[in-house]
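User: hey, got a sec? need Helix-turn-helix domain-containing protein folded
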Amino acid sequence: MTAATVRRRQLGSQLRAIREQRGLKLEEVEQRTGITSAKLSRIELAKSAAKPADVDTLARTYECDDQLRESLVRVARDGNKRGWWLNYGEALAPWLSDQISLEEAATTFRTYQVQLIPGLFQTAGYARAVHTRLAIGATPEDLEARVRVRRERQAILTQPKPLEMQAVIHEAAIRSLVGGAQTMRDQLEKLLELAGLPNITIQVMPSETGVHQGMNGPFAILGFPDSDLDVVLLEGLLTSEWVEDAERVTVFDRAFRGIVAEAWSLDQSIDFITAQKDRLK
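Assistant: Yep! Here you go:
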């Protein structure tokens, strides 16, 4: 039995919630669909992967609307794809593979970062400096693999149907000298380039702001066509935590809206980033 990915847990949790909302027992679903109670239980508990055809059958039995049904089937279908990132093998932690898989399927990505530039915005030099200092126990080969992965991930920002990304970055991350002055100047130039794309919004949280919703730490909200499948990523030093419960995700959604309101406007943010870039000669 393979380890459950975040997407599989999402799907199983959602199918179970819908079934319970309809007031159906496992045995009743088996009678209506031919999918055994044992198999459905394994799917709901993320102990086995769900076939897209089975998910389609379940969604129709639960009388889901077309949008929700198609979303659920897409999750099951995409979960069986081999992503490009799997070619990097042990250089990537399992949680990072899950994160990249979710990024590839997401339509929106909202993040608040305190000390670092968001990974999807990082230059190779900046990413290398970060991994060199923070990737505990990694070999030089692993470090370079992680830098390449970080750069390849950024393709989702410029593909034909790009990821919609909204980032609020604390002033401290903009003022820091990760990798030295030239590396940081290159990074700030990259931020300004990205800010010119129609699918990317960048704001800066000023240090002078009082207590605000972001003081509990950095996080990212990955959004999907069906908002009930949205998840929150809390990154740590050695691992990451996923928040999948819809009510808890809503808490982070409210927090992010508050952070956006407290941050500098788009124009003020661009002016600040430009000034910091020009300061690094």
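Quick note: Strands lie at 108-113, 164-170, 200-205, 219-223, 231-235, 240-243. Let me know if you need anything else on Helix-turn-helix domain-containing protein.
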